[in-house]
From TrEMBL:
GO terms for biological process: GPI anchor biosynthetic process. It comes from the Bacteria. GO terms for molecular function: endonuclease activity; exonuclease activity. One of its GO terms (cellular component) is membrane. Keywords: Endonuclease, Exonuclease, Hydrolase, Nuclease. InterPro entries: Endo/exonu/phosph_ase_sf, Endo/exonuclease/phosphatase, GPI-anchor_lipid_remodeler. This is Endonuclease/exonuclease/phosphatase family metal-dependent hydrolase. The keyword Signal does not apply. Residues 33-244 form the Endonuclease/exonuclease/phosphatase domain.
Amino acid sequence: MPDTGQEFSFKVLTINTHKGFAAFNRRFILPELRDAVRTVGPDVVFLQEVLGTHEKHSQRFENWPVVPQYEFLADTMWADFAYGRNAVYPDGDHGNALLSRFPITLHQNLDVSVEGTEKRGMLHCVLEVPGRSLSLHMICVHLGLREAHRHEQMLQMSRFIETLPADAPLVVAGDFNDWRLRANDILHKEAGLEEVFTKTQGRPARTFPARFPLLRLDRIYVRNARISEPTSLANQPWSKLSDHAPLAVEIHL
């Protein structure tokens, strides 16, 4: 359709997939997770801790997909996907991924690891909306466990965001591990980002552990966009599908 200049909106969802296993790795639940994500109907899905390959798991579990987990989750619902491999080990690899109903015209996985710690990456994707002269910038992240490392990673992220077009719509989402609630101030000051739950409810949503959420670890940040209906999916079936509750929000441009 032609670009009429009318408002455009789309829904995003972010979830730490826990490599396709329920809490404590008791059960392989990737097919159930795919069904649950479909019921929300997001246009863009941010995934953390998603497996690319795992040789032992593929031999152990009968219903293990023959394609990478992110491709299995995308299936026929999300026409395009991108994967940023961060951690590599003898049996396989995992990282962040983005599923999109819109074409992904560019994607790059940027290393934000701090020396001497586990590998962390920042997956940046540019999406084109058919029929509109509009580029959407998406960044999927999973930050480190130590506060000093997260601080450095957020500064690296902010420096990268400075290189993007100043007026471009931007969504940054993922598992920030920010249990001390430092990220909002840093990312607002350094990158002009606003956290969607803080904007509407005064603070980030509780997301961990999913069954009884206490810690506010997961976030969705926006720039050059308005938002509505931020939702934390902490109820069933979600509480049985990951150790993190997913977050969703409607983005308006």
